[in-house]
Amino acid sequence: MALRRQKWVRWIVSWLPHRLTIAIRTLLRLQHLLIAKVRHRWRRSLQLRVVGTTLVISAAVVAVLEELPTVIEHEDVDGARDLIKRARAAQQACLARLDDVVRSESETGVPHATGDTAPGRWDSSTQPVALALTYRHLGRIAANALNIASSVVVPLDRLDYPSTLE
Length: 166
Description:
Elements: H1 7-15, H2 18-74, H3 77-102, H4 105-108, H5 128-153
């Protein structure tokens, strides 16, 4: 129950001068407004960090995929090793972000599903499943690019395939 609805608080406020009660109410309203603004900015900054990180990881994966045909065509071993390192870095970033998404709200301080977003708007902090699937998808794309690039580094005869088809 709110403090202002209790009888003893109302009794004390009734003895205060009228201008003082108006000033107290104004200060309380300003406090609530300030808290609401801070919460909104925190949520917005969290959304921008999530979107920014996702864009950086997807740009790294796209850069790996763009270079992959050239490396395969020229059988560039050094380029393939560089692509493998970059793909592994993208995979590690995806796994780290996935761990952040999966953490509970008590660790991050932000509830996962508040339901206070307007219809038609996507809020990354209230969509942990979509965000987790996005990071899983980007990680799998990076892993597949890594496997293709490793075919340039490791010769086919050294791969673990059966020598005869039976």
